Amino acid sequence: MLHDLFRFLRRWRWLGLAFAICLSVILYGVVVLSQQPVHVTMLASALDTAQERHIIEAFEAENPDIKVDVIEGPNASNLIEDLYTSSFLLGSSPYDLVMMDVVWLPKFAAAGWLLDLSDRVSEADLSDFLPADVAGSRYNGKLYRLPIRTDAGLLYYREDLLQQAGLQPPDTFDELLAASKQLQQANATTWGYVWQGRQYEGLSAMFLEVLAGSGGFWIDPETLEVGLDRPETLQAIEFLRRTITERVSPPGVTTYQEEEARRLFQNGEAAFMRNWPYALPLTNADDSPIQGKVGIKPMVHAESQDSAGCLGGWGLGIAKSSAHPDAAWRVVEYYASQEAQRSLAIRNGYLPTRRSLYTDPAVVQEHPYFPDMVEVVESAVLRPPVAQYAQASDILQRYLSAALTNRMEPQQAMRAAAEETRTLLRRYSAS
Ligand code: GLC
Which residues fall within 8 angstroms of residue 18, CB to CB, at 6 or more apart? Predict the structure, then answer.
């Protein structure tokens, strides 16, 4: 009997051993896998990816259980929007995090692509944030992103050149043209003014400033009235066209985005530039030929009108389709924190969405102009916050670009733009 048992055990011993090995391998795998970081993926512009690398690195150092995979996209905001849009439409989006321009939010929220974050944040948590950025993060009363950076268009000028010529920084369109020509004639600069003239979202943002600074408007979000075929719009286009026909701006300006304008200005080839605040630390960096020679001020405007900077800005939301919403939320919280926004302000000159940082001693020490920026941001003009914004902006970009590159008469172009926009909005209000 005992003998039989020994024989049995001898025969099955190898099987038992194999079983034990398999079990250990499986257990080991489970333990190792549970210690692997969760990967969350986000798409952002190449420029922002490079500028914000230190934030991701700091987050990962503090959160070893999460890895943030950032996919670099093009720099034009509307092109990144297209990439997010097609991935959500196809239903197999790889993105957990959605780095959103303020103008995309109504569309993304209305389409149901974003997770409602309202329950994760209290009103007290939001109290330090600038109201316009919070408003731009809500849709139908729900919160869909935390704003991490605000933006407003500014006029950059060469302090040294103006001083040498005995000129004041310009307030009006005409003063800008006159100062440019004077500096060009004196051979102090090759070009007067560089701006964003390419057919992309930056053209709409820049144009809104010239339009509002001419007393005009694009779309009234309350009444859905369209102002593109009004005389003020034509005056605004006239200013931009004069910069080209009077050779104040290079002919290629109608192909420039932010970075093309910045490179030219930073190389010392232009006296004035329209750009967002991110450009200041770069133009003032140690390797910049114009370090210490750059001033900023609110945008130029028409005589007897007010200056208008366009409100821009970015915020982080979570894709509804994400399999890792809690890990994604930790990234959102970190990006919007005091610590991360302070670092983005100091290193990159990004305007924070937290009001307290504008007077934060470490920030002000690095950027003494920051306290003045609160007013610029708070008086900035909004692009119309309608769910059809992407199409409305596309219409404006197409016709405006045609008018600026002499493919259409401005009046004819803006009449067509106004009509198309009205049709778009009628469809929207009827649905
Ligand atoms: C900046 C702004 C954004 C805007 C874009 C246009 O990134 O923050 O709101 O749409 O420029 O180029």
Answer: none
pLDDT-derived band at 92 (thresholds 50, 70, 90) equals: confident
**Looking at residue 429, what is its pLDDT?**
72
Structure tokens at 272: 């004035």
**Prediction pTM value:** 0.91
* 49 Cα: distance to centroid of ligand 1 (angstroms): 15
276, 314, 353, 396: residue to mutate for ligand 1 pocket, most atoms within 8 A of CB = 276
Report the helix count and the strand count for the chain, using DSSP H and E: 19, 11
pLDDT tens track for 324-346: 999 999 999 999 999 999 999 99
The pair of structure tokens assigned to 305 is 């009108």
CA of 256 to the centre of ligand 1 (A): 14
Whole-angstrom distance, CA of residue 208 vs CA of residue 218: 7
Rounded to whole angstroms, the Cα distance separating 211 from 249 reads 19
Answer whether residue 20 shows pLDDT above 70.
no
Ligand 1 atom showing the smallest separation from residue 276 Cα? 1
Residue 138: phi and psi, rounded to 5, are -110, 150
Ligand 1 centre and the CA of 28: distance in Å?
48
Residue 22's pLDDT is 54
Structural domains in the chain?
38-151+311-378 (3.40.190.10), 154-309+386-430 (3.40.190.10)
Question: What pLDDT does residue 387 have?
Answer: 86
